[in-house]
Amino acid sequence: MNHSESVDCTVKPPVFLQIGDAKGDSARSGVCVVDDLATDINIEKITFKNYYTAYVTIRLLRRKAEKEGSAKWCTALRDLALMDNPHTEGGSQNYFSIHRRQMQVEPDHVESLRLILRQPSSAWRLFNLEEIRLFPHKEPAPEKEVSDWLSNLIVVKQPPDLEGLPDPQTVSSSIQQMWALTEVMQANRTTASIGRFDVDGCYDINLLSLT
């Protein structure tokens, strides 16, 4: 199951609270209660479509995981505004998502969800929440260690692309021949200077006078 799949739950019909023993529209308190029964769920988010509800309060029936015994009610969110103004239609039929980070308590091990709806305006005789869905919270998977990640790598050896390059053996042989030729030239290099009038390193004055 992932975050895109909601859990199965039972949404009871809305119950409108009356003022005293009177009946009829004049006795309506503007408060409606909707119970959503679940089975030990850790909630990630709650989604619904509004129908002329001005404010919603969310209460959760939770049990503590480390303790046995009866579950307890707690308030997760109080008087969240769903309409821009109770007397106008802004937001009256919008879709809403309430995430766990918006709640005052961690919505874990929830057995029942109670939505308390309020509509103080007498302009709307009926109000409710539709298409209520609960999505479960999943802990993120731990990240793999770098060593584990490296061990899963597959090393693929590929031969180098030698197309267009000279043969390495031919290049090596040519370099060796050039080195040998350089050595021979160094060994045969003469240190005698070449001059026009010098003889055994000295100048003949007679030759100089003829020029």
From TrEMBL:
InterPro entries: Nicolin-1. It comes from the Eukaryota. This is Nicolin 1. It comes from Oryzias latipes (Japanese rice fish).
